[in-house]
Amino acid sequence: MKLQILCDNNNSWIIPYIISYVDIKRNQGLECMFCQTHEEVSEGDVLVLLSCEKLFKGLHLNKYNLVVHESLLPEGKGWSPLTWQILEGKSEIPVTLFEAEERVDSGLIYGVEYIRLEGHELINEIRALQSESTFKLLDKFIADYPHISGVKQLGNSTFYPRRTAKDSEFSIHLPLSEQFNLLRVCDNERYPAFFIVKGIKYYLKIEKA
Question: What value does the mean pLDDT of the chain take?
C-alpha cells in the first residue's frame, strides 16, 4: 500500500502532526510520503488531503482520495466546522473521514470519530485533539485496507460560511463569560481576538496560567 498525504498550505498548523505521522508509518514499514505541492502527488493507493487550499484535480491518480471534515456530513459542510460548532457551544464534535469527489464534501463516508471537549481547551489543545481523531481514522482505514466499504451521505445538507478576520472581534459590551468560546478558538498569532475602542484596534490574546 502506498500512502500519500497532501497539504498545500505551507502555513497550516497540521504540518508538524503530518510529519510525525509519516515518520511513524514509515517506521512501521508502510510506504508513506508527505506532499506539499499538487505536482508531488503520484500514482498510488491512498491519497489524504489535509488542510488543502486549492482544489486537487488529480483524483484519478489514486484508488482512494480521503478528506477529513469536522461535522457529521452532510450537515456542516463548508468552512471551519469545528470552530463554528465550538462557538455554538457544542462539546462533542464529530470528525468524518470520507471520499473526495468533484462535488465538495459529498463522497462516501468511511468512518467517524468524536472530539470531546470539557470547555477549557484553547486552540492548540483543540488542534491536538483534532489531529488525534484525524490520524485515528486513517489508522483504521489502513488497517481495513483493501477491504474498504463506505456509506452514502443521508439527510439535508447545511453549510458553514467562510470565517474572516471580522469573526474574531470581541465585544467590550458583553461579559467575558459569553465570549469565552471566541477566545478559545482564536489563534494568538495568526488571527487573534480583537476589540475596537474609539476607533483604535486592540488585540486580545489568551493563554493558560
Answer: 96
